[in-house]
Batch of 2 targets.
Target 1
Amino acid sequence: MSKNVRHFLDLNDISGETLKAILSHAHALKKQKFNPPQIFQGLSLAMVFDKRSTRTRMSFEVAMKQLGGHTIVMNMEEMQIGGAESIEDTANVVSGFVDAVMVRMSDHDKLCEFASYTSIPVINGLTDHSHPCQIMADLMTIEEKLGSVGGKKIAWFGDYNNVTRTFVQAAPIWGFDLAISCPKDLQPDNVNNDNVAFVNDASQAAQGADVIVTDTWTSMGQEGKNIDKFMPHQVNAGLMAKAKDNAIFMHCMPIHQNEEVTDDVLASPACVIYDEAENRLHAQKAILAWCLEEAGVLVQDSFDFEAE
Ligand code: CP
Ligand code: NVA
């Protein structure tokens, strides 16, 4: 990985102290929603996608622009990298044009390879391996709704995917317990994490939980797969009733209606998915601020990561 460049590729690569500081900066920036500090003036972010996106694309674009910066959005299929151009050449060329780049692509190793060649920060906007920006917004939402994340019980249901994997990374950093209810054949055998438990009975996984969370059973690129085996892990009103009275329901979205979660849960007061989606914006601002600060770019205001 390039020296002295602050990439945001996986939560595991970054110290817990830094991640918590980024999160408190996100809360502070949310409070400045209507008076955003113009700290990204003169800075540009490129966004490169080889998959669909609504929240990630919009939140990064609005985050840069509200703080005075610029964005350029590229579809990987239309870039030369989608043809014959090498990852190394693309990384070097992009580094000459913009100050940071966010990439959404399937292959996490290729993303890391790309980052190893750039002289600018690279942000993981979702790979098949992980989705760190999403989990920053999710943890921010839990802090907002429940006061803190440490010591809470988060119960995950359904697929074991990029979002689950990032929750697994986050659990020891923030000190929450993560109960995972997913089909047995998807349970990895390499999770040596005292904060994480695989619970085969969904009701038991939900018992006493502060947060119930799920994601689609069909991640992008897996279209057409058989989803029958996920049914015992569906989030429905009966499952929510096992959680604490003040438990919240979260989902990174997009939702596949009446598959991973039923409409009654989505319509209930426990459902905080739209606040969770909005928090992508505030979390993105803080992630960008951290990445750009170390890139040697002079930002107008100094970053005070202390909680307010
Ligand atoms: N949650 C999320 O990453 O949404 P998008 O796919 O719309 O960006
Ligand atoms: N697991 C989902 C997340 C979408 C934001 C996917 O990869 O499609």
Target 2
Amino acid sequence: MRELIEKGKKRLQWAREHMKVLKKVREEIKESRSLEGKNISMALHVEAKTGILALSLAEAGAKVKMASCNPLSTDDSVAEALREEYGMDVYAKRGETEEEYYENLNRILEHEPDVVIDDGGDLVSLIHTERKDLIEGIKGGCEETTTGIVRLRAMEKDGALKFPVMSVNDAFMKHLFDNRYGTGQSTIDGLMTATNLQLSGKKFLVGGYGWCGRGIAMRAKGMGADVMVSEVDPIKAVEAKMDGFDVGPAKENIKRADFVVTATGCKHVIGDEEIKNAKDGCIMANSGHFNNEIDISALEDNSEFSRTAREDVMEYSMKDGRKLYLLADGRLVNLAVGQGHPAEIMDMSFALQMLAADHVINNDLEDGVHNIPRELDEKVARLRLEADGIKIDKLSQEQKEYMEGWEEGT
Ligand code: ADE
């Protein structure tokens, strides 16, 4: 146990040293005392960078309770270190059952939160279905990811969302970097850790060309893979083509794919037809929030038997003799196998989370989904430039007037 705690402590310390933007935001919010005494319930992937967010909120005076937003993504060493070394209320363990997962979400609500911080929308959904009694006391929430925002907007459309939620995901300093470069890098990390196989020269299919898919495709190409993309959105499909990828339907592309990674936010992207067409030996993984992008029942129905081929690699022997592989039960491979996004990237996302929590506490916002104000987005960008020692240009007064006017054209 001591060894596990020490490992978690070191991971936390390492992350803290690389999260300089969050440090500045933490210092400012601590000084303003705006979060002092506030109860915060956080459902995020429990790992080192998230641990630093929880500790930052606590250092600013908030009372934080933390659970995971996914049953398979918890870093147990970090969870244990947070509990034992920092006295944090953390209710999460890797590989928890669905029942334990919801028990833990309920436990973080026991202190009747002022603010909820969610990743994927399960916590907000739980409150609106089974813990409606808490809604009155909740000043607002913050949502981390695209999947959560899609769910919240559906709730908003139905008039079902009963408190304001800040869309951290839609901030430029979040999705341009976390979704793209973060998912790109951490997905490759997860794939390589799980398989220890070669990527260069392999055919690699990316399902979805949103910010995450773009990042995965870019990084797979950088590793020398021959990348194909499948999309349902015609605009994104054109973009993928112009970015140099081979675009086509998943059921066709998968016939040639050595690796498949889904990142769409939609279910059954790899369904029965794609599984029937998949190339012998194909390795499939998901980087989207939920484990329904690859239809596991279709995989089971088409197979004769399965076995664990290697840690986090399930081998399915198909009735027609092919072998297909699924990583981490189709859970998001970058966290279930890899260590999640790089610290410097989560630094910006979590600085935004802290600013969003502060914003929602200090303003009386209407129920519904709210964008992060532009000035907070720019603040995070400037802090990041400062941390990297990068200076940028500034418009002169003459240029400012030119940009704001319309009479002068030449
Ligand atoms: N680390 C913490 N939260 C994460 C997320 N949503 N994606 C990847 N890595 C993370």
